[in-house]
Amino acid sequence: MKKHARIEAFISSLDSATPSGLHPCYAGYFTCFNAGDYYEAHDVLEHLWLPCQDASKPFYKGLIQIAGAFVHLRKQFLRPTHPKDGRRLAPASRLFDLGAQNLRPFAPIHLQLDIATVLTLCTRHNTAIRDSDYTINPWNPRILPKLRLLPDTSAGD
Question: In terms of CATH, what superfamily is 3-131?
Fold first, then answer.
């Protein structure tokens, strides 16, 4: 199955579980990210980001970059002595910076996401990487980072 068809099938499976008013690709990003499936989170949100023409485009890009940072951390964790995967801490750090830069303008909350929480996650991982002089990977598969959407408070006011 090709990538586009695989993503479409995944998104269709989420439709009934997607919170009201949110795009299934956006909700799917969090489903994948919280399961540690960072590459899939990236792919699902990219499906929304690529055709996006509104002001949220940099917001989606930031979330994609953060998922990309975790792709690097996961690969480095799994194969730390591999010639390519072993050198993924610096690219992860750069993606944390870029993702945070793209999310900051949307603070404090955008599309039910507490931006400060995401920025704290990026800073914590990035600080650990940099403080170790790019030798220690802070990601651990036993303690996966979680991103949670806030309840929708716009209805019923």
Answer: TTHA0068-like (1.10.3450.10)
